[in-house]
Write a structure and sequence with these properties.
The protein has one domain: Tetratricopeptide repeat domain (Serine Threonine Protein Phosphatase 5, Tetratricopeptide repeat, Alpha Horseshoe). About 70% of the residues lie in helices and about 0% in strands. It contains nine helices and no strands. Helix 3 packs antiparallel against helix 4.
Length: about 240
């Protein structure tokens, strides 16, 4: 049975703790004006307009976490995944209380790039940063299904549902975990059948070897008996005289 992965990656741009409302606002003293302008476009879901401002703001200050997050998400929305990876990696060490979010988003990008193994590593990093960060468990489970690690995926799905019992994805996740358990049961049946087949084959070979061995032994016994009889017929212990 082949498990079909149910991809439930959280939309990264919906996970960000936006600091501004979705309308334009006046520049705030002490804040980078490029960041302010980029954020205005960002919260209005206009990544193309936000991108140049956020890029300038990030060049000016590569330690500003919100700038990096908004910029990386814009790159993702525009399909520039390598650029998103670069920004996430730069800001991750300075992520602070947003480290789990950054690591999870980075895992999402790698997943989209087809690198489920790398994605799993960053989902794990997110879980270590914040053991209660539910999206990391869900997405790590998806990555593990993708790599075939079903036994590791199941507890992650269960952990996610325990953290998000009212998740709208619950029916889909429960369906998927049911399929995984069915696969476990089928795998156990296949294992037992393989063991039984291997045992039967071993017994068949053993019987065959015993039969061949017995046949060889019987032939050896017959040959030895004929040889002994010939020796009895040709032996002579009497005396004789030459004329």
């Amino acid at each position: 049975m082949k498990i079909k992965i149910l991809l439930i990656l959280w939309p990264v741009w919906l996970m960000l703790p936006l600091s501004l409302a979705s309308q334009e606002s006046a520049p705030v003293p002490g804040r980078n004006p490029d960041f302010v302008r980029g954020e205005e476009f960002f919260v209005r879901n206009k990544p193309e307009e936000a991108l140049p401002f956020l890029e300038k703001a990030f060049v000016a200050d590569q330690t500003h976490v919100e700038t990096a997050l908004y910029l990386a998400v814009c790159y993702e929305q525009l399909g520039k995944l390598d650029e998103a990876v670069t920004v996430y990696r730069k800001i991750l060490p300075a992520g602070g209380d947003k480290s789990a979010l950054i690591a999870c988003n980075l895992g999402n990008v790698y997943f989209r790039k087809g690198s489920a193994g790398f994605a799993e590593q960053f989902y794990t990093q997110a879980v270590r940063s914040d053991p209660s960060y539910a999206p990391a468990y869900l997405n790590r489970a998806n990555a593990r299904v993708k790599t075939g690690a079903l036994k590791d995926a199941l507890p992650d799905y269960e952990r996610y549902l325990s953290l998000k019992p009212d998740s709208p994805q619950r029916p889909q996740i429960e369906k998927l975990t049911g399929l995984i358990r069915e696969e476990f049961a089928a795998e156990e049946i296949r294992r037992l059948m393989a063991e039984e087949a291997a045992r039967a084959e071993a017994e068949r070979r053993q019987r065959l070897m015993e039969e061949v061995s017995a046949s060889l032994q019987a032939q050896a016994d017959d040959t030895e008996g004929i040889s002994a009889g010939a020796e009895d017929l040709s032996g002579y212990d009497g005396e004789f005289e030459l004329e």
